[in-house]
């Protein structure tokens, strides 16, 4: 039985583990966090990704957890409503379509449960990779060394496997000039499946109720012409950055800033893309944000990771020889069109037509 080590138990990793297990592989996942990571905002499943969920047998669970947003409004500095609609939201696009919006942590829990055939090791990370013609020797941070037939980096925008196998992030990252934080707060605005957005210049908030309405998710972001260096593990420093850029905003800023300092699920990152000529080298390949992050502006990061996992497993399952090349070949156009969504309309959303075209620009059948 061929063995595969997957780095990262976000979205792509567990979906890949599900399919590889079904294709007869022995799969191990290593996740740096001590447990499945909470937090994050609503993410979307569109087009081909909905079909992947259906084929995995998890679509009903996903639909049961959909956010069911009713609409959104925009407010000015003083909290006066300047726009209101029940047709679309900024996070999900049109509300009457087949797309599925779900909180990231709900989707993480569903895909983690679907990866049941794989062994998941939490709280560890790969420290070295050495490959030869027959396999990959992997050394782990917590000690220990194991040999696998293949290694897949599904470890996100700041991929560790990419750094070890291809070189430093700066060679592949393309910054889109925005930084975004996401965190939970008590629902002091009494939102019921509703979003409110407030923007002044290139900084602002998006706030919406999480399922059940007990809490809201706050999305506080700001623009920066030059990339900002920050420590990806230093949450305090990241909160200080958000405060520095958002505390002069109006509306509910004092309460939203207070909630940020109290939040234990704070997430912060640059809106950035990853562009690489190849996602694979020898027996190592990359999946999802690690290889072809489209950024949260594309609204398609989750769909790309799910579809990439399906196609990669399908190709490995069909014939191991040349599988990574065929995976790249089948995914390239799909990835390009989805990455282009993030930059089609700077400061706004891509057209519905482009989103639809990008979401379905791949065949799931060989
Ligand atoms: C906590 C969190 C919140 C997010 N919130 C949003 C959001 O609100 N909106 C949005 O559009 N996108 C968000 N994202 C990104 C979004 O989930 C991805 O764009 C998309 O789901 C693609 O999935 P992925 O599996 O490629 O990467 P991710 O979902 O980012 O998963 C990567 C996984 O790899 C793990 N990892 C990182 N480094 C290592 C390492 N050295 N060793 C082992 N494991 C490692 C991470 O902990 C994570 O579990 C978030 C990601 C995270 C981790």
UniProtKB/TrEMBL annotation:
This is FAD-dependent monooxygenase. It comes from Nonomuraea montanisoli. PANTHER family: MONOOXYGENASE, OXIDOREDUCTASE-RELATED. The keyword Metal-binding does not apply. Pfam families: FAD_binding_3. It comes from the Bacteria. Residues 3-325 form the FAD-binding domain. One of its GO terms (molecular function) is FAD binding. Transmembrane segments: none annotated. Keywords: Monooxygenase, Oxidoreductase. The keyword Oxidoreductase applies.
């Amino acid at each position: 039985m061929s063995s595969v080590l997957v780095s990262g138990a976000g979205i792509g990793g567990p979906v890949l583990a599900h399919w590889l297990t079904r294709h007869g592989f022995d799969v191990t996942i290593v996740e740096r966090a001590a447990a499945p990571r909470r937090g994050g905002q609503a993410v979307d499943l569109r087009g081909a990704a909905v079909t992947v969920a259906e084929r995995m047998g998890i679509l009903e669970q996903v639909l049961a957890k959909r956010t069911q947003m009713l609409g959104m409004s925009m407010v000015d500095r003083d909290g006066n409503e300047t726009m209101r609609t029940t047709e679309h939201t900024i996070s999900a696009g049109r509300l009457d379509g087949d797309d599925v919006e779900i909180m990231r942590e709900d989707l993480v829990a569903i895909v983690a449960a679907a990866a049941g055939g794989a062994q998941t090791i939490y709280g560890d990370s790969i420290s070295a990779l050495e490959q030869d013609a027959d396999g990959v020797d992997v050394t782990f941070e917590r000690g220990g060394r194991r040999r696998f037939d293949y290694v897949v980096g599904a470890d996100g925008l700041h991929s560790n496997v990419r750094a070890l196998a291809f070189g430093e992030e700066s060679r592949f990252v393309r910054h889109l000039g925005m930084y975004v934080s996401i965190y939970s707060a008590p629902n002091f605005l009494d939102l019921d499946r509703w979003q409110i957005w407030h923007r002044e210049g290139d900084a602002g908030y998006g706030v919406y109720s999480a399922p059940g309405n007990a809490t809201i998710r706050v999305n506080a972001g700001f623009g920066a012409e030059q990339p900002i260096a920050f420590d990806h593990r230093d949450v305090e420093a990241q909160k200080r950055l958000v405060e520095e850029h958002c505390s002069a905003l109006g509306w509910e800023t004092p309460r939203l800033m207070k909630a940020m300092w109290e939040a234990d699920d704070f997430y912060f990152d640059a809106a950035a893309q990853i562009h690489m000529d190849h996602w694979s080298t020898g027996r190592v390949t990359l999946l999802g944000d690690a290889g072809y992050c489209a950024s949260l502006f594309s609204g398609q990061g989750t769909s790309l990771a799910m579809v990439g996992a399906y196609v990669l497993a399908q190709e490995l399952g069909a014939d191991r020889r040349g599988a990574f090349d065929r995976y790249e070949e089948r995914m390239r156009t799909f990835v390009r069109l989805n990455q282009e969504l993030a930059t089609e309309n700077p400061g706004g959303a891509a057209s519905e037509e482009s989103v639809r075209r990008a979401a379905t620009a791949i065949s799931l059948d060989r």
